[in-house]
Amino acid sequence: MAKHSVVMQYSRCLGCTTCIKNCPTDAIRVRNRKAVILADRCIDCGKCIRVCPHKAIRSISDSFELLEQFKHKVALPEPALFGQFHNLDDPNVVLGALLRIGFDDVFEVAAAAELLSDKARREPGGERPLPRITSACPTVLRIIRMRFPKLIPHIEPVLLPMELAAQLAREEAVKKTGLKPEEIGIFAIVPCSAKVTTAHAPMALPRPVIDGAFAVNDVYIKLLGPMKEVSEAPPDLSRTGALGLTWGYCGGESAARLEKNFVAVDGIDNVIRILEEIEDGRLPDADFVELTACVQGCVGGCLNVENPYGAKMRLAHLAESLPQKRNTLSFSPAARRLARFQQELDYIPAFQLDADRGAAMEKLFRIDQLAEGLPGLDCSSCGAPSCRALAEDVVLGRASLDDCIFKVRERMESVADDADSYLPAPFRHKKKPPIPPK
């Protein structure tokens, strides 16, 4: 599995620069009419997947052929999956259909989320500095590790609900079947590229606890027929209540934890702005901050089918028909141990100019100098998202100043009378006389 699940399809890419203008971490460049992802800066937010007009960027998830490698297969459906279906009034319809498409058992991620909510209510605060920041979104964790390392101590040290669910599901399956743990396959059904990546490369665990990750949009198609077959008499498989299910949309985690002074923010650009405020000490009243990189939360993930606003409405409606809590799982000392980080999050030096501080300062000074000499229009014609990004690429040896069309114009002025005409119309300095009417 690649380091990231977001990949380019070069046969479709036309080098239009839409993706580089929308990437929140400046992780994409256009070179030779093709977009290139800088892997060390990618946070798997999936924003480029949504905005690409040519569908040239996609997320790689696992193939269903992976199921054949295991004797017992357990599905971990994320709460967002249930928001994809119209007129769904019983989660057991979806769970029963999962058993008909190749799984032997199901374990709802919402059940693990319910446990984590219960833990937060019983053990509020702790020694973490305020505001405490949710650990439920892997994209948020990655951007904090890259751009806001001073905020790492604010992150609550509990695993993603799908990671806790995977461990509990494997333990349960071993007891049920008598099989060895390695003979049991645990498969998450995820709404976003970040969770595909995290399933194979966890941040707070020494090794993966999930054997594969399937995209919601792939599973959705397979479920439609079987759901009709089980709708009249669905099996009783669900073990979660409303508090676990509402983790699927922004604000649901805070409500399930019964937080009072909290801020719930969705959308990666809004997340970055609120993190800047926290870093600057401008968010003093909040005790807890729920951050989700996707619009409306996990229901807005790039691997979903439905509009995030409609999916949130349907998920909230389904939650209203359920009891608040099912309490079918107990948060035992063993479960508490499984829920905690098994390794500390560390700083990712993706934006570090040089390991040597002196050399890094010299490069930063050079970048400032070059950026001042560029037009500052951030037109992206050079293949970088901004003039400053181009200056950085030049200093780091990834680009040349000649990539800037305005620098080329300056050189052409010495050999051409009308060098301005070689620029695109919006950037020309000289005005041509209007064409008189006939």
Architecture blueprint of SSEs:
Layout: E1 6-8, H1 18-22, E2 28-31, E3 34-37, H2 47-51, E4 57-59, E5 72-77, H3 79-82, H4 91-100, E6 105-106, H5 109-122, E7 132-133, H6 138-147, H7 161-177, E8 184-190, H8 193-200, E9 212-215, H9 216-230, H10 242-245, H11 252-256, E10 262-266, H12 268-279, E11 288-292, H13 308-320, H14 333-339, H15 357-372, H16 387-395, H17 405-412
Parallel strand pairs: 5-6, 5-8, 7-11, 8-9, 10-11
Antiparallel strand pairs: 1-4, 2-3
Helix pairs in contact: 4-9, 5-7, 15-16
Average residue pLDDT: 91
Tell me the helix content. 25-40%
Q: What count of domains describes the coordinates?
A: 3
The backbone outline, from C-alpha atoms, is globular
Tell me the number of helical segments per DSSP (H or I, 4 or more residues long).
Answer: 17
Rg measurement, Å: 25 Å
Oligomer: single chain
Span between termini: 65 Å
Secondary structure tally: strands: 11
Quick recap:
The chain has 438 residues and is an alpha/beta fold. It has 17 helices and 11 strands.
Q: How would you characterize the overall build of this protein?
A:
The protein is an alpha/beta fold. The chain folds into three domains: 6-59, Alpha-Beta Plaits; 64-339, no CATH class; 357-427, Electron transport complex subunit B, putative Fe-S cluster (3-methyladenine DNA Glycosylase II, Chain A, domain 3). It is 37% helix and 10% strand. It has helices at residues 18-22, 47-51, 79-82, 91-100, 109-122, 138-147, 161-177, 193-200, 216-230, 242-245, 252-256, 268-279, 308-320, 333-339, 357-372, 387-395, 405-412; strands at residues 6-8, 28-31, 34-37, 57-59, 72-77, 105-106, 132-133, 184-190, 212-215, 262-266, 288-292. The strands form four sheets. The protein has a four-stranded parallel beta sheet with strand order 6-5-8-9, with helices on both faces. The protein has a three-stranded parallel beta sheet with strand order 7-11-10, with helices on one face. The chain has a two-stranded antiparallel ribbon with strand order 1-4. Strand 8, helix 8 (193-200) and strand 9 form a beta-alpha-beta unit. Helix 5 packs across helix 7. The longest helix has 17 residues, at 161-177. It is globular and about 80 Å long. The mean pLDDT is 91.
